[in-house]
Amino acid sequence: MISDPQVLDFITKTETSYPADANGASAADNRRFYDAMCAAFRATRPPGLAVLDRTVGGVPCRVYGETSAVTVVYIHGGGFVVGGLDSHDDVCAEIADATGLQVVSVDYRLAPEHRWPAQIQDVLAVWDALDTPGVVVGDSAGGMLAASLCLARQGGRQPLGQVLIYPGLGGGGNAPSYEQNAEAPLLRRSDLGGYRTALHGEGPITDPLAQPLQATDLSGLAPAFIVTADVDPLRDDGADYARRLTEAGGIAAWRNEAELPHGYLRARRMSDRARRSFLAITAAISRLAATGKAV
């Protein structure tokens, strides 16, 4: 239930450009709606911030800020179908400005033109090409890819930390949030099925990298800071993943944001709740980069 007028205004503004049925449109139309919505919210970059589009590991990326001792790898959301370098440009710019760290935003291939595992292959190519320690950050689908990166490099070169923002982690739809928030604003349970089909087709998913909650061994993974939106069918994926990481001997902090829906990062300039959450996220990135501690 959302009663906060600032959050309700954010939902209304979002749906003006990105209607509730956009996820049922073709990929091309969905992207057109999504790009218009992102443009409506996009803020100007902090003054003086260096920004350069370049290829990293053969993958198009956008680099924010000067070289730093620790690199932030940002993986955008969008259900693996929409989004790109422009959709999260202001978020990445503000992370670079707030933390003083260089941010590399990954323009991974999108479904349905490119199905799994193209997305994680691109993310891993960027990660493996970096020669500095890194903190991996992702929202929504990007949160899953951030977790998958850590899982793929289990026993190898781990990030200093993973920051997962309202991630979908393959919980299977049995957790309470999938029922409680089945018709939540900005992301419905039915939308998740459409994204799954676009990414994987109709067959079963057998790769644990595509659903980290189904992996049998989560030991040895990077410390995690996981943030969920309370009014979101994916909420319990984040909570369950934090618990699983802790049970495996890892470090995980979970923060759940009351009265916020999926995709609330864009509300950080019009909602006090979203702004406080974004500040907590940037603080966690800085802390993980400096100390490797999630809290």
UniProtKB/TrEMBL annotation:
<feature type="domain" description="Alpha/beta hydrolase fold-3">
    <location>
        <begin position="72"/>
        <end position="265"/>
    </location>
</feature>
<dbReference type="GO" id="GO:0016787">
    <property type="term" value="F:hydrolase activity"/>
</dbReference>
<keyword id="KW-0378">Hydrolase</keyword>
<protein>
    <submittedName>
        <fullName>Alpha/beta hydrolase</fullName>
    </submittedName>
</protein>
<dbReference type="Pfam" id="PF07859">
    <property type="entry name" value="Abhydrolase_3"/>
</dbReference>
<dbReference type="InterPro" id="IPR013094">
    <property type="entry name" value="AB_hydrolase_3"/>
</dbReference>
<dbReference type="InterPro" id="IPR050300">
    <property type="entry name" value="GDXG_lipolytic_enzyme"/>
</dbReference>
<dbReference type="InterPro" id="IPR029058">
    <property type="entry name" value="AB_hydrolase_fold"/>
</dbReference>
